[in-house]
Amino acid sequence: MEQTLDHSAGDGTHALDRQLPEQLFSALHDIGFDGQGITRATYGAGENAAHHLIEAAADKLGLEIRRDWANNLYVTLPGRDRSRPAVMTGSHMDSVPGGGNYDGAAGVVAGLTVLASWTAAGFVPERDVTVMAIRAEESAWFPISYLGSKAAFGLLSESDMATRRNDGAGMLGDMIRQSGGQPDAFAVAALDPKSIDSFVELHIEQGPVLLERDCPVGIVNGICGSIRYRSAVVHGQYAHSGATPRSYRSDAVIAGATLMLALQQEWIRREDAGQEMTLTFGVCHTEADLAHFSAVSGRLDFSIDVRSRDIVLLRQIDEFIHEQAKLIEKTCHVRIALGQQTSTSPSISDGALVQSAIDSAANMGIPAICMPSGAGHDTALFATQGIPTLMIFVRNEHGSHNPMESMELSDFMKGCAVLEAVLRKRSTAA
């Protein structure tokens, strides 16, 4: 007998099974634990095992299962009218090297938790609801943002298939084939934007906002875009530290530091003017074999990561980077090679979905705040395809991309309750 899920009392988590996510998170930890953190490498053994785990759990629930050529996994609860565009949710299953257990995986587990509650209650949506376990979101492995999502929409090229994984494990096409995929079909789109009603992604927050605000759930109103120079190099000239006067030096470290300080000061100026952005130099090192304390450094490798929801601001900062690089080349007698730029576009959450999440949280008495996402997510790629999107954040201590990720299951269940309510409303609307 079909039942309607009742969320009229409490926080809605009573309608959701806590045992399933507990079991899945425990199994995911066992799959990815590397002795210190979690490593589920893109198109590696860890990511493959995580996808098999989700597939097995979905099979036990009697859900439809399919994969595309890139081995993205789709788990579907059929709706009454299968001709209508589907409601989708999900996230990625890979991790950064030595990361945490919840980044990405929480969104897939959340979607499966919702569908498990619906099948247990005999609830049938009006349209298909699909949980997507996405491949290769973490660009720590391949220098391509949203790789799995791009594959699903047929947005990868033949040259992308020849991209080598950053740890030297192999080329993308070969690793897709080894995982059971079909890289020769790289131009095939498994997803048609017209067949997707909406995409809602639950994810741990990767910053401290929810923790500092003592709030378990965040409703994301937009995702930052980015401009990145992953492999920038300052080329100077090695020289003796005592025998080379300042005016004769081509000091790569001083040049790099000058550029970084100029960009940092520009960030402060922009922030003081009320503009929103972040700036990070995540890589900065001299050559280990040549650099030493009594030599002027001849080379500095570094990276630049700029993020903002304002695409005009991103372009302005990029122009500033190039202007400062040219200026510093002249004043410091060096050559600055910024290298290839990679970028992502900002996205704005769908207003109706945002309001649905706000109302759902309020109706269940779940504290929630609206906030932007500084980190990029697969949701942004769905948004660029014209699909209405939303993200739901769950409070997480100690940030992300490190072994200390610390999401409480009670917070996760609150996020799941909001996700369930949004998906239910969207999948039953006329």
From TrEMBL:
PANTHER family: ALLANTOATE AMIDOHYDROLASE, ALLANTOATE DEIMINASE-RELATED. Zn(2+) 2 binds at D103, E138, H401. InterPro entries: Amidase_Cbmase, Bact_exopeptidase_dim_dom, Peptidase_M20. Zn(2+) 1 binds at H92, D103, H203. Its EC number is 3.5.-.-. It holds the Pfam family Peptidase_M20. Keywords: Hydrolase, Metal-binding, Zinc. Gene3D superfamilies: 3.30.70.360, Zn peptidases. This is Hydantoinase/carbamoylase family amidase. Its cofactor is Zn(2+). Binds 2 Zn(2+) ions per subunit. It comes from the Bacteria. It is an enzyme of class 3 (hydrolase). Belongs to the peptidase M20 family. One of its GO terms (molecular function) is hydrolase activity, acting on carbon-nitrogen (but not peptide) bonds, in linear amidines.
